[in-house]
Amino acid sequence: MTTPRNAEAPAPASGGSEQPPTFTSYVRDRGPVLLRTARSLTANPSDAEDLLQTALTKTYLAWDRIEDHRALDGYVRRALLNTRTSQWRKRRVDEYAVEDLPEPDPLPDPDPAEQQAVRDAMWRAVRKLPVRQRAMVVLRYYEDLSEASTAEVLGVSVGTVKSAVSRALAKLRDDAELAEVARPQARPRMLQSRQAIAA
After folding, report:
1. CB 177 within 8 A of CB 121
2. Which residues contact 190 (CB under 8 A, 6 or more apart)?
3. Rounded CA gap, 153 and 67, in Å?
4. H/E element holding 58?
5. Is the Cβ–Cβ distance between 136 and 168 less than 8 Å?
6. What was the pLDDT predicted at 41?
7. What is the distance between the alpha carbons of residues 161 and 164, in angstroms, rounded to a whole number?
8. Distance CA 76, CA 55 (A)
9. Is 24 exposed, middle or buried, given 0-12, 13-18 or 19+ CB atoms closer than 10 A?
10. pLDDT of the residue at 167
């Protein structure tokens, strides 16, 4: 009789039964499968490894009490699930009912000088557009007309409005002066400025 692959101790001389695996041989043979189970319980690979390590530690401490070594996988999976549930409960934020919802911090008032600079740059960029595109941008975004209404006013199809406005917006995005004035920290105020232009 040959020694089983997953056993480190020699097989008994008689009786024909297989020697139960040692903890080391069990982890070596079943580790990859158990790690896949751990990864199904958490998205982070490092957390999955930690989770499996904790479950295997619990299994090691109970190793001598596990009589049926065919049920080892089930024991480790249960330890994985219990450990993950315990981690989730510890991280859970307690919720309390309150009468009043907390108010968000108010946004700082926009700088009037910066608003004016963006407004001026926007108008200069709009004036650079071809006449037809300029008319469509003004009707769509400053007069707040729908695409259908814009098409009706100009006597063109809705598809023409869509394509012309799309090309116009691309030109505005590529306008160097406007891009300089509306740098990333100023962009949240651009919409406010656009509304102010129409006022």
Report:
1. yes
2. 118, 122, 182
3. 85
4. helix 45-61
5. yes
6. 82
7. 5
8. 6
9. exposed
10. 92
Question: Two tokens at 186?
Answer: 């100023």
**Res 5: pLDDT:** 38
- Cα angle 115-118-120, degrees, rounded to a multiple of 5: 105
Question: At 118, which helix (H) or strand (E)?
Answer: helix 112-127
Cβ proximity of 170 and 149 under 8 Å? no
197: which 2 tokens?
């232009």
- CA dihedral over 127, 132, 136, 138, signed as positive or negative: positive
φ and ψ at 87, to 5 degrees?
Answer: -65, -40
Burial tier of 1 (Cβ tally within 10 Å: 0-12, 13-18, 19+)? exposed
In Å, how far from its chain's centre is CA 97? 28
Angle between helices 23-41 and 72-91 (to 10 degrees): 40
Stretches in the chain below the pLDDT threshold 50: 1-16, 184-199
Q: Contact at 8 Å (CB) between 119 and 181?
A: no
- Alpha-helix runs per DSSP H in 63-107: 72-91
- Contacts of 41 by beta carbon, 8 Å cutoff, 6+ apart: 48, 51, 80, 81, 84
Q: What is the DSSP secondary structure assignment for residue 99, as one 8-state letter? A: S
